[in-house]
Amino acid sequence: MIKKAFAALTALVCLLFASGTYADQPMPWQATLQPAATPIMREIRWFEQYTLWFIVPITLFVLVLLIVVCFKFRASANPVPSKTSHNTLIEVIWTVGPVLVLLFLAVPSFSLLTAQLTLPDNPDVTIKATATQWQWNYEYEGSGEAPVAFDSYLLKEPDRAAAGKTDLSVYPRLLAVDNELVLPVDKTVRVLVTAAPTDVIHAFAMPSFGIKIDAVPGRLNETWFRAEREGLFYGQCSELCGKDHAFMPIAIRVVSEDKYKQWLTTAASDLPGAYKTLIAAADGSAKTVDVAENVAK
Question: Could you give the CA distance from residue 153 to residue 251 in angstroms, rounded to a whole number?
Answer without folding.
Answer: 10
